[in-house]
Amino acid sequence: MQIRVINPNTTESMTGTIAAAARMAAAPGTTISPVTAATGPVSIEGHYEEAVAAIAVLEAVRAGEGEGAAAHVIACFGDPGLLAAREIARAPVIGIAEAAMHLASLVATGFSVVTTLARTRIITEHLVVAYGMERHCRRVRATDLPVLGLADPGSDAAGVIAAECRRALAEDGTGAIVLGCAGMADLATDLSAKLGVPVIDGVGAAVKLAEALVGLGLATSKLGDLAPPNVKPYRGLLAHMAPDAEDAAAGRGGGKRAPQDRALAGPDAA
Amino acid sequence: MQIRVINPNTTESMTGTIAAAARMAAAPGTTISPVTAATGPVSIEGHYEEAVAAIAVLEAVRAGEGEGAAAHVIACFGDPGLLAAREIARAPVIGIAEAAMHLASLVATGFSVVTTLARTRIITEHLVVAYGMERHCRRVRATDLPVLGLADPGSDAAGVIAAECRRALAEDGTGAIVLGCAGMADLATDLSAKLGVPVIDGVGAAVKLAEALVGLGLATSKLGDLAPPNVKPYRGLLAHMAPDAEDAAAGRGGGKRAPQDRALAGPDAA
Amino acid sequence: MQIRVINPNTTESMTGTIAAAARMAAAPGTTISPVTAATGPVSIEGHYEEAVAAIAVLEAVRAGEGEGAAAHVIACFGDPGLLAAREIARAPVIGIAEAAMHLASLVATGFSVVTTLARTRIITEHLVVAYGMERHCRRVRATDLPVLGLADPGSDAAGVIAAECRRALAEDGTGAIVLGCAGMADLATDLSAKLGVPVIDGVGAAVKLAEALVGLGLATSKLGDLAPPNVKPYRGLLAHMAPDAEDAAAGRGGGKRAPQDRALAGPDAA
Amino acid sequence: MQIRVINPNTTESMTGTIAAAARMAAAPGTTISPVTAATGPVSIEGHYEEAVAAIAVLEAVRAGEGEGAAAHVIACFGDPGLLAAREIARAPVIGIAEAAMHLASLVATGFSVVTTLARTRIITEHLVVAYGMERHCRRVRATDLPVLGLADPGSDAAGVIAAECRRALAEDGTGAIVLGCAGMADLATDLSAKLGVPVIDGVGAAVKLAEALVGLGLATSKLGDLAPPNVKPYRGLLAHMAPDAEDAAAGRGGGKRAPQDRALAGPDAA
Amino acid sequence: MQIRVINPNTTESMTGTIAAAARMAAAPGTTISPVTAATGPVSIEGHYEEAVAAIAVLEAVRAGEGEGAAAHVIACFGDPGLLAAREIARAPVIGIAEAAMHLASLVATGFSVVTTLARTRIITEHLVVAYGMERHCRRVRATDLPVLGLADPGSDAAGVIAAECRRALAEDGTGAIVLGCAGMADLATDLSAKLGVPVIDGVGAAVKLAEALVGLGLATSKLGDLAPPNVKPYRGLLAHMAPDAEDAAAGRGGGKRAPQDRALAGPDAA
Amino acid sequence: MQIRVINPNTTESMTGTIAAAARMAAAPGTTISPVTAATGPVSIEGHYEEAVAAIAVLEAVRAGEGEGAAAHVIACFGDPGLLAAREIARAPVIGIAEAAMHLASLVATGFSVVTTLARTRIITEHLVVAYGMERHCRRVRATDLPVLGLADPGSDAAGVIAAECRRALAEDGTGAIVLGCAGMADLATDLSAKLGVPVIDGVGAAVKLAEALVGLGLATSKLGDLAPPNVKPYRGLLAHMAPDAEDAAAGRGGGKRAPQDRALAGPDAA
């Protein structure tokens, strides 16, 4: 089974971190196809960047559907474009925030999220409501580390995050930690060992949930609001995003290759 | 005061309907600058189309900020790109679903929404939660009229909508009706008269709320998550959406003109 | 358009502060008719005083309806008598807490309320639920300033309130401040400038929302629970509050002049 | 122990029905002191009438406190003036809607309310939220019987109510019925027998809860928002409602006898 | 009226404390029949112990039904087996957490719970949701006293609890205290006097609610999900818990005497 | 990896159905160890039966922990004993209701549950709240098929269920179906094909979630309320359920073999 793991930002090195975490989580028969967003910001730290990043996510999902992906993972903790992506996919589409929160609720009665900049906290809080996690998520904690700073050796990101996790365990009445950024994916195992509680990285969580759904033969519902978008004209810069009749028949949203499709292919896709 | 009224879809005739409703609502000193989305679908009836349409909304808001708009109205009932737009605007940004629901809650203890295709109902239901209207909104009712069918003389759209409103009043324990599509903006006055209850069109509602905020000197908060997006590189097709330092200083998100900016100018803007 | 701005307490000097704020907010064509409660406590700082104050509010709304008011504003942050007033009014009736919270939710994703005595906090918390603002209102903060102390030059009320606002911005993850008392109406502009975030006074907010509704031709729904009270006898001290058939026909609750109507007329009404 | 059972409307015959139900519920050592509202409407069927009726409720509670009442029951299903009354009472104050809903939640996992006019449904729905009964109360059903029609022999009120209860049991997935009007108090026993499920009258329920609190020595908390109202001047028709220092010391809101305890001469009755 | 007060743990000395509190609360005509769990842990401080304790609770309720108990009280603050017990009882069944929270909401607008070990806090928090007390319960505070330590003279339990109550009153904006363990039942009166606010012990509260329901003739609803369990075979160690046809006819769940029924009899039952 | 799939009822044939569904879902490296409850009712259709069944579930989880199970599945749609089981397990414990609802929320924006007897609906509704699925679960529908009737060839259970699913899709605005009983596990694939929407069986879903957690190295949190039960004496029939020090060290609740693992002699089986 091929799972497309889409990095919604345009920083390829971060795709590498994400892909490594995805592969570590993947079952033997699973192939991880990492994809870097073809367009958009180099990191995603707010509503505006989420909205712009959604376009590349949708392009990547559409492309993946054309190539027979078994599932799609949106590897940014704001889950940009999630419901939109489900409209154009037959295959399951999983966001990493969604995945991490769902799994956290299975191993603890309460969890805290440790994330990056304070300004992204609101995005997580809105997702907590959308996913029904108000009573499970005890607190969303920002470290004020920028996303791209996570990979900066001089930042002591791992130390800062570990310290915030410890505060969460001491103050929040929480039994598990959810890491609130795809760029923290490599820290989960180490932190779990150090802190002695489940520390959940959404990338691995989403890969396993994707495998679960595919293993059960469960695809995205095409009845109701997740049905393929209606066939209609699109104009201007994003005209290539229009679905055509062939897409609709296949249960997908877009058939024409986007102009930047060449750039969509990730390391595994060549 | 100049209020940009942005039609997030690319159908110019619908911009006309919207602009007319906006002008009917506007106070003497208000200028309505209608804008048609420069890119995206001709109508918006689902999550996917909302996501694509958000790009044109953001472009239009950014352009409006550059031109000194006093406020921005997003004239599609899904309020696409609303929080993202607020990040790049100093001026208030109002969505029409938001506006209609807030005003409805001031004239009735409960309201029903009458909208277009059944598949869009979920979008309204999610907004009802986002805006805290769960106890005010009694029901979201679909007519299964497509958005562009509203303007089709053969559709009897007005009759179909009136009939659904009557069912709402009879069955939902509701005291007011919210029209769930910008394309219904021209029906509100007539329906109010016929049904004897407040029938609220979001376009007019948003214009009045924009005037209210501007009149009070209230701008979008720039403290916290609605601060201007951080300055960082954007790649690919949407690279023009990157904010630059000048934008950030001005409290805006993007300074370079988008390639399609020429097309952004609406009827009033020439 | 004439907007009745009702001070539910019986302190005329506070009516002056309120009227000044209302006039500063009003559009050119709007006339503000300030009204001081004809009966009740000199300030409102609890459930009991709210209940008593509601009577004068209802008398004032009824009188205003008789005089053709375009809208009514209830200028006490507990919004006393709001739904009752809507039953006897065709014109819109707006509470200042309601108005401030709705507008705050349009310019920030979260706000804090800064109010007077700690004992009034519960009233605001109940309104937060009633208006669906649980996810927008981050915290209600008391200063323990009594209402009438706000106007006391020796109280340093402005300083105390500014300090509490600063704490709110530092601790609550909040992007805007709502001032929780009509007596603070004169502080909003100055605080906005000092704090660099939207600071919202409910009096101005309510005037603008009233203008908005009137401008759209939206009146209080008379279908369902906000219909005029049924015509029936009232006994004793409050017998004058009984609606009569003429009121009901006019969509109002009370036709006979209340005994204290003479005293109801505010500065503008002569 | 003396329990004041206050009929918030001014119809003495209804006080009789209420008093009979209260006495039937009372324990051997309990004395029921029925009180008819000294002022206000003859029946309560809306927000406006609730607001007016609250005054007489407060007068009655204050008088009862002066006479050493052990507890107060507010015998109207909208619980008018409940929190205000608690401020001026040391003794417990119980509303009948509150009482009925709490007891219903102890004998069934879900209940339906059967009430009078449709326009009063919203009042119950707001109380359902205030009392945390959203998940227990399955539906509020109106019969469109006016309150005073309940006692009209020609109305077949008992039959109409029984029929609505049967519909509730058949359609709502409900295990108990709450009668939504003090005027139905005499029907509960008979309906319980006929329907084979608990049918709960709030008057009896409130008497028993009052006995429970008194028996446990539990009085209304005077810490925080239910503390006695601050001593301050009141003006006009309701000037007698001002608490004085003696009241405050006694933990009550008003010490002067209300004018209508002697005679209701007119406005500002000296 | 005979009320069975069931101590769900197997520590007889704690049954003594509970029985004393119940008798102090009981009305003259009420007989308290204390019952110690025939099986299970000596104290209950977690989900697992609650689940085990539920068996003895059900056995005790079944036995009590056979002996004509007028009502059953489950005297552990987690209310173990509450809904299950209601299926096999015609008589009312009241949990002490439920009872305490309901009564607390009648004397204060907000309360705090002071409980034993931190690990039990989650159980209370889940009950707060189940009983609709999210807006009334301001905080659940643990003292980290073990249940059986409450009776240990060297523990200074009373002092520790009083100190935590004082913190609650100072920090939580709370007007009443709910004691979160049956083992604290003897502290309520003294704490009320010391702290000057209502301090509510669930044992007494449940006895009074049981008296209230019995006094009103209200029994557990047998319509719907609280109907007697269906008659069907049970196997293994708990085979004696199977209801038989005779039970079902009597509205009870189990007719055969449980093997440990001999041990179920408490001090009063001989 | 060995996953214990526990049938909480004592009907071995139903264990067979459950085991077959579990094996169909299991990944190549997974071994399914089916367990039939050693004690309790032959089917579970109410609160009482859930409470009794929890004991066997806990015994099975404890035994499984002793045997090195990688995960535990509780295969009854009420998830009996779930949190209690987590206290005594290091390995993940998954309930099938929980599993089905979480996965359903990933493939549709709304789902309906189709279950057995009407009396079980409340159990699902309570779980919907516990799992935060209020906004995803559109309706819980009963078929009034008894659990053991599902396997009765004469019952046309498959037809009845299919018909109810069709009604759900037509009326509930739902995109997926959750089967509300472990006994329906064999119907999911066929129903998915017939209805054209995801039909989710909790047994398969729980197996896949267990594999996911194990694959990620995520175990049940032992910090806070899911820590092993404290070591303390248990008395009477269930004395064998007491954890001992060895259990606690291993992070488990009970080390001694339960009496029914060998033979069920009687009470207090030595």
Throw out a few tags for this protein.
alpha/beta; 2 domains; 270 residues; Rossmann fold; homohexamer; four-stranded parallel beta sheet; disordered C terminus; 15% strand
Mean pLDDT of chain A: 91
Number of helices of chain A: 10
CATH top level of the largest domain in chain A is Alpha Beta
**Spatial arrangement of strands, main beta sheet of chain A:** 2-1-4-5
Note the beta-strand portion of chain A.
15-25%
Residue windows where pLDDT falls under 50 for at least 5 positions of chain A: 253-270
Looking at the overall shape, the CATH architecture of the largest domain in chain A is: 3-Layer(aba) Sandwich
Work out the number of β strands of chain A.
10
Structural class of chain A: alpha/beta
Please name the two chains that share the biggest interface, counting residues whose Cβ lies under 8 Å from a Cβ on the partner chain: C-D, 58 and 61 residues
Q: What about the largest sheet of chain A?
A: 4 strands, parallel
In whole angstroms, the N-to-C terminal distance of chain A is: 17 Å
